[in-house]
Amino acid sequence: MARRRAFFRSIMGGAAALALALGGATAAGAASGGSLAGTVTAEADGSPLAGVTVSVSTDDASVFESTMTDATGAYLVPDLPAGEYVVAFDASGTDFIPEFWDDASSRAAAQRLIVAEGDSVVGVDAALALGGAIAGIVRHQADGSPLEGVTVRAESADYSVSAFASTDADGAYRLAALPAGDYRVRFEPADPTLSAEFWEDAYDESRAKAVHVTAGQSTERVDAYLAELGVIQGTMTLAADDSPVPGWVTASDATTGLTLQADVAPDGSYSLTVPPGRYVVAFVPDGGRGIREYWKNARREEDATTIAVAQGQIVSDIDATLDSSGMITGVVRTSGALSGDAIVEAYSGDTLVGMAYTQPDGSYRLAVPAGTYIVRATANVYDMIFAPQFFDGVATRAEATPVVLAAGGDRAGVDFDLATGGAIGGNVSTADGAAVSGATVTALLWTASGWQEVAALDTEGSFVLGAGSTPETPGGSLPAGVYTLRVEMAGYCTAYFGGAESLLGAGTFRLESGAVLSARDVMLSSECTAPQSPPALALSQESILAGEVLKISGSGFAPGEAVVIELRSEPTELGELVAGIDGAFSDDFRIPAGLPAGSHTVVALNAQGDVVASAALNVVAGASGGASTPPQGQDDLAATGGELPSFAVTMAAGLLLAGGMLLRRRRQQG
User: Fold this and answer.
1) CB-based contacts of 332: which residues, under 8 Å, 6+ apart?
2) How far, in Å, CA of 253 to CA of 230, rounded?
3) What class has domain 230-322?
4) Chain-centre distance of CA 397, in angstroms?
5) Which residues contact 134 (CB under 8 A, 6 or more apart)?
6) Kind plus residue range of the DSSP H or E element containing 95
7) Alpha-carbon distance 363 to 357, whole Å?
8) How many CA atoms lie within 13 A of 412 on its CB side?
């Protein structure tokens, strides 16, 4: 029978029982009561419906009365005490859909009727719509024998309509009086050794095939063959001492979408009953030092070995001996106060390996395998007025200090003190002022290692990055500092705050702790300007002695870009620089003392190792004796070894001239 009908009957039966238990007077004993009367017909053609149960009850169940319609569809409920009533109509045994007055599908939505003392309320009519039905047979998969007592349930896609029925001795069932539409049908056997399933052979609701119902028709042959359950069993223990590990074990079948779970018993054993299929089994510890793994000895699901389970098969010895984790511990504070509302996460690369919640005293314990991690703390997750922080006290992942955890070891003192953050808002528009929807706005924070992305969102014209859940609360999730904004959208040139089309020249602004900035607007254009000048290098001098210091400057680089400086022809790395917020840098570098004299090139390399800028440099052998190259046209000297370096000849001539002048001056003085 339809659940709505069954629910209605259970409610009405309960109301009647309660009314008797309370000793409340019903209409049968009230000589001066009021009455309700009306007619029930078929909605399609207006024909009268005989045998429809009409129930009248109060919301507190102190009064419950029912009657049935006659051959003309008419009914009368006499002798009702004064009060407020709900009227229900149920054409049991037909496909007419039950309803409450006035055309309501539930009691909650029903319109109440007021009956005064001695009053006769007429015209309480109902026109019942004709529904459809679902019917079929349920059998045992092993031998095809019919299954009695299986509960068959049908639910509409939005769960607003549901119905249930039980199979008879022949395995047959019929779900009647269903409104037209699509339904999920589930078969639930009374025998615990058999598997429940959806039509057709789906074990997960998301994979269930819909059954369509048409008004006035019965959808037949919605049958099911229920399989005997199999079993996966084994133990979960700790490798270090073979002790039982509390937790649970899950089995997931990617084909059917089914996931089942069983708790681990105190002795470390578990048992999972599953339908036939191929399963990935996960062993999940609850606390302690055990590290989650998959069968067989796999750390990742994609590396797991699947387990095939046939109908009625018991698969034993699916055991797990878990490796022991290390423990990262510390305390999280917000503006100096201990935070019991924070999450601490450990990342290996971009992969989240583990997370832990803080206790009321701000402490946390984060169990992870041996490795190197970037650790981040986030507080007030549901109202983020504090900026997340990376260890050790920095705002971005690029600046974070890695936490190294040895096998089975612990790392204490990974503490955090989160400051109040801020938020940035504005608008994205075109040159004519039209709001742009669908653009991506990214907030970039200037750090010691250059610009770092800290937040991004898609905008509907206006945007607020880092806003808390309550606008009246100061703060946000963006760390204080110097920012710029980047806006990207297909069909438009990338734009930065301030009107630039690259980071070089982008406008910047400072976000203070607790501030919420507005009017950080960016305008998009489909006509891009000419590209910026390419990166360039400038040297403090074009010729230098080997071993001396050379100032190298650069411009036109991306702000925050890491640049490697090399001296070529034989590549010799001089050092690494980071372009400033204006895309420029300048620093001193010492030319290697043993560098061969002659023509060389200073080059700047980007992160991919490509030469992006260069400058010529002539190196002269230093006083320590860098190797020299014979000049052109001096073959005779080069052959006899009589060549003097040109700078030495010049210096000698200068010394002789200076000496002659000094001797002349002394003679004049004499």
Assistant:
1) 338, 339, 342, 344, 358, 362, 364, 377, 379, 415, 416, 417, 418
2) 13
3) mainly beta
4) 19
5) 154, 174, 175, 178, 183, 185, 211, 213, 218, 219, 222
6) none
7) 8
8) 1
**In whole angstroms, what is the distance from residue 597 CA to residue 622 CA?**
9
> Strands, E, within 275-390: which ranges?
277-285, 293-294, 307-309, 314-315, 320-322, 326-334, 337-338, 342-348, 351-357, 363-368, 371-379, 389-390
Taking the alpha carbons of 461, 462, 467, 469 in that order, is the dihedral positive or negative? negative
* 87 Cβ neighbours under 8 A, 6+ residues apart: 36, 54, 55, 56, 100, 101, 110, 113, 124
For residue 661 the two structure tokens come to 């002048």
Residue 157: partners with Cβ closer than 8 Å, 6 or more residues away: 181, 182, 183, 184, 210
Helical spans, DSSP H, in 520-642: 635-640
Q: Which residue has the tokens 């490798």?
A: 239
Please, are residues 559 and 582 in contact by the beta-carbon 8 Å criterion? yes
- Pairing label, strands 230-238, 314-315: parallel
Buried b (16+ CB within 10 A) or exposed e, 600-634: bebbbbbeeeeebbebebebbbbeeebebeeeeee
Please give the CATH architecture assigned to the domain spanning 423-524: Sandwich (2.60)
Q: What are phi and psi of 240, to 5 degrees?
A: -65, -40
Distance of alpha carbon 370 from its chain centroid, rounded? 26
Q: Are the C-beta atoms of 79 and 70 separated by less than 8 Å?
A: no
Number of Cβ atoms within 10 Å of the Cβ of 542: 9
Dihedral sign for Cα atoms in the order 530, 536, 540, 543: negative
Region 132-226: CATH code: 2.60.40.10
Q: Residue 554 is inside which H or E element, if any?
A: strand 549-555
Confirm whether 132-226 and 536-620 share one CATH topology.
yes
Where b means 16+ CB within 10 Å and e means fewer, 364-399 reads bebbbbeeebbbbbbbbeeebbbbbbbbeebbbebe
Q: Which fold has domain 536-620?
A: Immunoglobulin-like (2.60.40)
Mean pLDDT for each 10-residue chunk of the chain (670 residues)? 44 45 39 86 96 96 96 97 96 95 94 95 97 97 95 94 95 96 97 94 90 96 96 95 95 92 97 96 89 93 96 96 92 95 94 92 92 94 88 94 88 96 94 90 90 91 83 82 94 92 88 93 86 85 92 88 88 85 89 88 90 91 48 33 38 41 37
Dihedral sign computed on CA atoms, order 597, 602, 608, 610: negative
CATH for the stretch 3-128:
2.60.40.10
326-418 homologous superfamily: Immunoglobulins (2.60.40.10)
